[in-house]
Write a structure and sequence with these properties.
about 210 residues; Immunoglobulin-like; 2 domains; five-stranded mixed β-sheet
Length: about 210
Amino acid sequence: MVGTVGISVGLSHYICALSIHECYSRKPKRLKRVTMEHKVCLVLVVVALITKEAMAAQHVVGGSQGWEESTDFSSWASGQKFKVGDQLVFKYTSGLHSVVELGGKSAYKSCDLGTALNSMNTGNDVVKLNKPGTRYFACGTLGHCGQGMKVKITVESGTAPSTPESPSSSSSSSSSSSSSPAASSASAMHSYFAAFVLLTALVATSLLYMF
């Protein structure tokens, strides 16, 4: 599905470029039609941008339990697939907890909050996963990280195929990742809808060149 949408976005860019080129090669009496084509081109660009955002998934950290001390974050994270463009949403009671992004693996293991890269405390913090790699988060409240209130997020490339979980990983995360299938289903529906909208717009634009 990601490949289909990628091709569709590329086609929309090609059609826009073709329309602009023909604007300078047609006679004045056909400028009205060219103007209409440019409007459609603008719509295609907007649709392409919306499609890109629609494909991004939101992961509520901890699932239904949220960012709380009682949540098993390791099991929750093992049941998720994080890709470039996705977002993490930390939901918690402001004033009781906070979110701190740690500088690396060592700081994560030792709960060294002194190496924090960023700190958030709104109670509904959103973090965009803008590149592949591993990121580390913990609660900034004294003692909470040591009690297990921390999570490691491994981000895959947005175009990389998902790899199946190992049997051991699947069994260990089955109890705490019940929200994962629902999140995956919603993400898939968004992808199908976005692809349908973009392909429909491309077909409509192509018809303008036929008549």
